[in-house]
Design brief:
This protein has 283 residues and is α+β, with helices and mostly antiparallel strands. The protein folds into 3 domains: 2-152, no CATH class; 156-208, no CATH class; 218-283, no CATH class. Helices cover 30% and strands 22% of the residues. It contains 8 helices and 9 strands. The strands form 2 sheets. Strands 1-2-6-5-4-3 form a 6-stranded antiparallel β-sheet, sandwiched between helices. Helix 1 crosses helix 3 (36-51) and helix 3 crosses helix 4. The longest helix is centred in the N-terminal third of the chain and has 19 residues, at 76-94. The protein is globular. 16% of the residues are buried. The model is unreliable at 254-281 (pLDDT under 50).
């Protein structure tokens, strides 16, 4: 894929990982407890997650606690690094110590609410988080032993594939149900065709979509090659008007008109640079 070989892509990727590692206190619960060594090891883990094949799933049974599972395909040298680096990050975050489990080539960390376990299954390093009897982790581990992978993919060369039950995800991540009540499910894939990045998303509404859809009126006279990105949306005005975050924002009072007709769409880009000292990480 040509875009991955661009120097700008490599620079953006590196900058993003460095900022995530050095600003863990802004996005990671307990991140203020990480010292320089732990943040450097976090960088290594994040880099592997970008470079290697990963799988993550979270579920919450009815009247039960949430259970999550993460798997990453690593060679033996990388797996050994995860075995030693991840506890250095987790222990300050949880306040608990990792207990070695040599039989499964892994360890476990017991917190007040969850058991975190790392094991090695075939080519995969797997991490389960949940109650003491995490049946979910056992199900995925069995699937890896049987099929060689923890998932069934809809495509053969996808960079990212996601399937979200939005109401249940809102409950797990403590998001106000009103923010996602109009939606039921989201399916997202991200891939490339050798020259372009292709994003496909399918959003299922919780009830029939009844908003009026006016004819598209795109500002073709303002569009010129090369296009870095283009987003046009219609039929969402009534939903946006009832969504508190949008209603309270400046954007709600300053829509961006794409044409002189009645149809309008909003093209929004959020850029929020994280200002922080950049340590010397490995190249």
């Amino acid at each position: 894929m040509r875009i991955w070989n661009l120097s700008q892509t490599a620079g953006l990727e590196r900058q993003t990982l460095v900022k995530l590692a050095t600003t863990s206190d802004q996005w990671l619960p307990g991140g203020t407890n990480l010292d320089t060594d732990a943040r450097s090891r976090l960088w290594w883990l994040l880099n592997d997650m970008v470079q290697e094949e990963c799988y993550f799933q979270i579920r919450q049974p009815t009247n039960g606690n949430s259970e999550s599972f993460f798997a990453i395909r690593l060679n033996e040298a990388q797996a050994d690094q995860w075995l030693t680096n991840l506890p250095v990050v987790l222990e300050p975050l949880t306040g608990a110590h990792a207990v070695a489990n040599p039989e499964q080539h892994g360890w476990s960390v017991k917190t007040a609410d969850n058991l975190i376990e790392l094991t090695r299954v075939g080519d995969w390093t797997v991490i389960g988080v949940g109650p003491q009897n995490n049946l979910f982790s056992g199900e995925i581990t069995t699937r890896i032993r049987r099929d060689g992978v923890p998932f069934i993919s809809a495509g053969t060369n996808l960079w990212l594939e996601a399937s979200l039950d939005l109401p249940r995800a809102a409950k797990i991540f403590h998001i106000s149900a009103g923010n996602v009540s109009a939606f039921d499910h989201l399916n997202l894939t991200l891939t490339g065709d050798g020259g372009n990045v292709i994003t496909r998303a399918k959003l299922t509404f919780s009830k029939p979509f009844s908003a009026p859809l006016e004819s598209w009126r795109l500002p073709v006279d303002l569009m010129h090659e090369p296009l870095a990105g283009f987003t046009a949306v219609r039929g969402l005005q009534s939903w946006l008007a009832a969504w508190p975050p949008w209603h309270d924002s400046q954007l709600a009072r300053r829509p961006i008109n794409f044409s002189s007709g009645r149809s309008r769409a909003a093209l929004i880009k959020f850029i929020s640079p994280l200002r922080c000292p950049v340590p010397k990480f490995p190249p």
